[in-house]
Amino acid sequence: MPKPSLSQREVAALFEAHGPMVYRRALRLLGNPADAEEAAQDVFVRVIRSSHTYDGRGALVGWLYRMTTNYCLNKIRDRKRRRELFALHVSNQRAAQAGPTTAPDLVMLRWLLAHAEPKLAQAAVYCYLDGLSYREAAELLGTSKRTVGNLLERFQRWAEAQAKTAAERAAEGAP
């Protein structure tokens, strides 16, 4: 039989007794007082939602400590992934928004767009040429923002392979 959830009064008492420890742990891991404060609040929201999972074995402090540690590690991983995605997509998008500057670049771009899968070409045009955000492109394509990102990644890999093949042909002297 599942254990009943903690009452508001019990959670408030838990926060009063262990909130500072949760905050210190979060601050130590996240390194930012505002993030640590948010983490402490989110951990206690999780306590409310999942108090029925605490089986009473082991110290309650240990359960809170593990919950705080896991929450903070997930935040750190999320930050790192956001930075990677930003560098991959937004930096590339900004560079692409400058547009091709030479005639050969324009010819290559037109060739790529003409030969790419339709969805890939559309995503590339919307984001790289038109400068639309992923959200705006997703609305036009009838997909999610994540799908737009995936389409652009696929387009970039495909375009790089096409450019490599063209360079190899040029080095061999083929037309």
Give your account of this protein's structure.
80% of the residues lie in helices and 0% in strands. It is built from seven helices and no strands. Helix 1 crosses helix 3, helix 2 crosses helix 3 and helix 4 runs antiparallel to helix 5. The longest helix has 38 residues. The N and C termini lie far apart (75 Å).
Task: Offer a few descriptive terms.
175 residues, mainly alpha
Largest sheet: none
Task: Give the termini separation.
Answer: 75 Å
**N-to-C series of helices and strands:** HHHHHHH
Estimate percent helicity: over 70%
The tally of strands reads 0
pLDDT averaged residue by residue: 80
- Helix- and strand-based class? mainly alpha
Strand content: under 5%
Low-confidence stretches: none
Give the topology.
Layout (H helix, E strand, L loop, with lengths): L7 H23 L2 H18 L9 H38 L5 H13 L2 H12 L4 H8 L3 H28 L3
A few lines on this structure:
Helices cover 80% and strands 0% of the residues. It has 175 residues and is mainly alpha-helical.
